[in-house]
């Protein structure tokens, strides 16, 4: 009874959330201090609603119920992974994407390294964890931190005028592409034998991850090579999302990574007509899946002690430093030095993939491990704080935008 | 060929994954089995359609193959984990069936629908019951020690169960054939109406049998009254839910599929929860039927207010995955062992039911004065059977534990045959009448 009512409640909230959140705010509204309003506009309030419904408070989404809802989470992770991967259609890339890809990946890579290395030692020191678990925690934080969410850029970017408009386009492109680092790094975390009861090797789990994604992609390509009506495409899409996610979870691999590989295979081997239809179907459910994730991430959150809040502060500082340094380094010769110095502040928006990464870790490592609780708290606090400030920071960066003249 | 390659790749993935198995994460098994069911159902549906049979037969065949009696991929514990999805699918299909009943279109055919309901109900119930009564222990070994009166009671119960149909199968075949027209609308109207009639008849038969079969039994009028209350409560609550849905869709017409999913979940659970609550607190066996609530809700949305068309369109867009899931899981639940043990009795019941439905439908259409080209073909569309009849058989097990199990085994075996044969006959009729736009 409780499981189904919880599922109905979560569905209703996802439905309401997809309708009422993510409203487009006019630029005039961003100039002042937005604070809580930012949270509401980016959907971050659903983390708090989830926390309220979770076991620490109302207990509607308690641990048992969340285990029952695991298939929905597995499907959601696969959905996001597939949507991410299906955008990597190499043959359609224009010059802008090709020139922006490397800098985007470099800046995300820098952020991942700047977070991962100190956090390996911080986790070891503060939580007294083994080498393997510190690696899992630090790499997960690095993966989550490297991604840039689109929410603040979507709120502010479209209202930018003049010189700011070109920079807004560049920032959105970076935010589109840098998720690759998050997906791959977290995918690699799931190759560590410690997550498989110390069986197998990194190479075996890596090969299985990639192989699973490629084979599922080929299945989709084969099944959609016939002329199919939209409802049949939806059937194949749902079958793929459930199978890919379930098989990945069965092997304690990342559904995000496996389905991103599937998506990339589909993007590059499918017919154009099929690809457009699949993208349209995936985008249609995207908001609801995102709200669902925010809710369930909040519900699975067991806020840890004050020491973890200090770690969350460190995470925010390292992520900001990483974004500033990464962009300064990656966009040399692309953006004017004066803008490059603070361009990273325009990429602090946090959510989406970062939350998916945390949910994915919770899925494959059940059992209230201290590292999972700590990583969840750190990332969720990071998302909440970032979403408070990032629209105003994006506005500031765009206001001072002066793209470098092409040489 | 490409579908065969996809099938081979899926089989290889499944084999490798289960061979490696290092202790799956929670929820992994039902998630990937649900995906496998959808993809294999899709492949099997197309394969079977290539030889002219309805895709629903392919879904059933895929389920049978994956089920516990053959490959064992959908083992009994896994089927238990997927039961949640199955119930959701039933409620969703009922919403869709309700939405197909458009009063403006049905009004002209109410007389025909009424005569078909009356004739097929009476003739099927009486003739199947009579055959069972006459054959007695030769057909039903468990009836060896029963008196004549008790045998009559058992025959009446089997007769009533034989009346039940499968709105879900009917709707699935109509959707698959993209059938539109007076024949298809009449068929669906009769099928839904007969399910309601069956519930009432069954309640009356069960009360009567209990009185006849227990030594100190008296006619349990309370039980019959309770069934009438259940039906009224189901229709009223369904209508209320339909009004709310209609209002919501009128105001916010996006994302209806997610809304319907949530509605199906809530209805299913509240119906079961209310039954448990009333049983625990008042010891009353109130059993709100989610199917009836959802049909009533779908009917109200379709016929009250202006959101009917948007609702039907949204239901149609997402109904295929629901059908595939439902029928493949239904295929997995077909009991081959029971069929092997009781095939003579099961096939006798199937033959008796089919012939009486064919004759009664022809007679009903003739009495109603139907002159359409489909008047001789109605019977072929009423052979499907599933869902509610299994529920009725299980109720007999609960009420009469001494012989209920054997009764249910024979009835479920017959239902399994009807579930396989019914859609094929229905597709044939829709094609012959000329309302099937897709073959």
Key features?
heterodimer, A: 407 residues, mainly alpha, Na+/H+ antiporter like fold, 19 helices, 74% helix, disordered C terminus, B: 439 residues
Rough shape of chain A? globular
The name CATH uses for the topology of the largest domain in chain B is: Na+/H+ antiporter like fold
Report the average pLDDT across residues of chain A. 82
**What overall geometry of chain B do the principal axes of the alpha carbons give?**
globular
Question: Which CATH class of chain A is shown?
Answer: Mainly Alpha
Radius of gyration of chain A: 20 Å
Q: What is the chain-wise order of helices and strands of chain A? A: HHHHHHHHHHHHHHHHHHH
Briefly note the CATH topology name of chain A: Na+/H+ antiporter like fold
Number of helices of chain A: 19
Unreliably modeled segments of chain B: none
Mean pLDDT across residues of chain B: 81
Number of domains of chain A: 1
Of all chain pairs, the largest interface belongs to: A-B, 58 and 56 residues
The number of E-state strands of chain A comes to 0
Provide a quick synopsis of the model.
The complex is a heterodimer of chains A (407) and B (439). With 407 residues, chain A is mostly helical.
Topology of this structure?
The complex is a heterodimer of chains A (407) and B (439).
Chain A: H1 2-20, H2 27-30, H3 36-42, H4 45-53, H5 63-68, H6 70-86, H7 95-127, H8 131-146, H9 151-157, H10 163-177, H11 179-189, H12 202-223, H13 230-250, H14 255-269, H15 272-299, H16 306-330, H17 337-340, H18 353-364, H19 370-399
Chain B: H1 2-20, H2 28-49, H3 55-66, H4 76-100, H5 103-106, H6 110-135, H7 148-163, H8 167-176, H9 182-213, H10 221-251, H11 256-282, H12 290-303, H13 308-332, H14 336-367, H15 378-381, H16 388-399, H17 404-433
Helix pairs in contact in B: 2-3, 2-4, 2-13, 3-13, 4-11, 4-12, 4-13, 6-7, 6-9, 6-14, 7-9, 8-9, 8-13, 8-17, 9-10, 9-16, 10-12, 11-12, 14-17, 16-17
């Amino acid at each position: 009874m409780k499981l189904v009512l919880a599922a109905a409640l979560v569905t209703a909230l996802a439905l309401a959330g997809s309708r009422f959140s993510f409203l487009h705010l006019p630029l005039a509204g961003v100039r002042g201090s937005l604070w809580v309003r930012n949270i509401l506009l980016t959907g971050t309030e659903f983390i708090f609603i989830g926390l309220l419904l979770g076991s620490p408070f109302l207990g509607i989404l308690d641990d048992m119920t969340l285990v029952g809802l695991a298939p929905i989470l597995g499907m959601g992770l696969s959905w996001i992974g597939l949507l991410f991967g299906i955008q990597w259609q190499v043959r359609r890339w224009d010059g802008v994407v090709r020139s922006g890809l490397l800098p985007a990946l470099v800046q995300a890579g820098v952020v991942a390294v700047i977070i991962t290395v100190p956090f390996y030692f911080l986790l070891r020191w503060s939580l007294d964890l083994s080498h393997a678990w510190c690696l899992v925690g630090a790499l997960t934080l690095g993966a989550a931190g490297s991604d840039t969410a689109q929410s603040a850029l979507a709120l502010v970017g479209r209202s930018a005028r003049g010189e700011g408009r070109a920079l807004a386009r560049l920032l959105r492109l970076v935010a589109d592409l840098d998720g690759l680092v998050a997906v791959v790094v977290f995918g690699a975390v799931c190759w560590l034998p410690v997550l498989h009861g110390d069986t197998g090797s990194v190479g075996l789990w890596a090969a299985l991850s990639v192989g699973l994604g490629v084979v599922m992609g080929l299945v989709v390509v084969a099944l959609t090579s016939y002329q199919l009506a939209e409802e049949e495409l939806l059937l194949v899409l749902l079958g793929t999302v459930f199978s890919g996610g379930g098989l990945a979870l069965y092997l304690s691999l990342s559904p995000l990574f496996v389905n991103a590989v599937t998506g990339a295979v589909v993007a590059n081997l499918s017919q154009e007509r099929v690809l457009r239809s699949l993208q349209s179907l995936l985008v249609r459910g995207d908001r609801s899946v995102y709200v669902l994730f925010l809710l369930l991430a909040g519900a699975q959150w067991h806020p840890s002690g004050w020491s973890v809040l200090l770690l969350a502060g460190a995470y925010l500082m390292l992520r900001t430093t990483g974004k500033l340094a990464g962009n300064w380094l990656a966009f040399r010769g692309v953006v004017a030095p004066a803008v490059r110095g603070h361009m990273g502040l325009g990429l602090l928006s946090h959510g989406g993939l970062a939350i998916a990464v945390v949910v994915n870790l919770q899925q494959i490592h059940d059992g209230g491990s201290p590292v999972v609780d700590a990583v969840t708290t750190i990332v969720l606090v990071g998302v909440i704080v970032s979403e408070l400030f990032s629209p105003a920071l994006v506005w500031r960066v765009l206001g001072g935008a002066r793209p470098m003249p092409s040489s | 060929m490409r579908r065969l390659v996809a099938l081979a790749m899926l089989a290889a993935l499944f084999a490798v994954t289960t061979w490696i198995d290092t202790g799956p994460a929670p929820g992994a098994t039902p998630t990937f089995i649900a995906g496998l069911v959808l993809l294999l159902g899709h492949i099997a549906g197309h394969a079977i359609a290539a030889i002219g049979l309805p895709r629903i037969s392919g879904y059933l065949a895929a389920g049978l193959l994956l089920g516990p009696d053959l490959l064992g991929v959908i083992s009994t514990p896994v089927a238990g984990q997927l039961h949640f999805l199955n119930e959701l699918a039933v409620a969703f299909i009922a919403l869709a069936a309700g939405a197909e009943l458009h009063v403006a279109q049905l009004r002209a055919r109410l007389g025909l629908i009424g005569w078909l309901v009356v004739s097929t109900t009476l003739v099927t119930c009486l003739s199947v019951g009579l055959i069972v009564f006459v054959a007695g222990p030769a057909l039903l070994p468990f009836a060896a020690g029963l008196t004549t009166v008790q045998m009559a009671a058992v025959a009446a119960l089997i007769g009533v169960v034989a009346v039940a149909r499968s709105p879900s199968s009917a709707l699935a075949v109509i959707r698959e054939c993209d059938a539109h027209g007076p024949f298809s609308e009449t068929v669906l109207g009769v099928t839904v109406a007969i399910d309601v009639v069956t519930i009432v008849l069954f309640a009356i038969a069960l009360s009567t049998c209990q009185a006849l079969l227990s030594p100190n039994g008296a006619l349990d009028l309370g039980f019959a009254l309770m069934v009438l209350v259940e039906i009224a409560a189901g229709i009223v609550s369904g209508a209320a839910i339909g009004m709310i849905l209609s209002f919501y869709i009128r105001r916010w017409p996006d994302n209806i599929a997610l809304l319907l999913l949530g509605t199906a979940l809530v209805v299913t659970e509240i119906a079961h929860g209310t039954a448990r609550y009333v049983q625990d607190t008042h010891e009353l066996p109130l059993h709100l039927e989610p199917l009836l609530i959802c049909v009533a809700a779908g009917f109200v949305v379709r016929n009250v207010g202006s959101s009917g068309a948007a609702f039907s369109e949204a239901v149609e867009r997402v109904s295929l995955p629901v059908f595939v899931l439902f029928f493949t899981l239904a295929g997995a639940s077909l009991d081959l062992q029971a069929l092997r043990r009781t095939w003579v009795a099961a096939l006798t019941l199937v033959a008796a039911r089919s012939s009486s439905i064919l004759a009664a439908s022809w007679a009903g259409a003739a009495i109603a004065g139907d002159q359409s080209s489909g008047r001789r073909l109605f019977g072929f569309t009423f052979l499907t059977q599933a869902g509610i009849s299994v529920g009725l058989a299980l109720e007999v097990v609960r009420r009469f534990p001494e012989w209920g199990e054997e009764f249910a085994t024979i009835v479920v075996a017959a239902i399994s045959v009807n579930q396989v044969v019914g859609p094929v006959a229905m597709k044939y009729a829709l094609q012959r009448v000329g309302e099937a736009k897709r073959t």
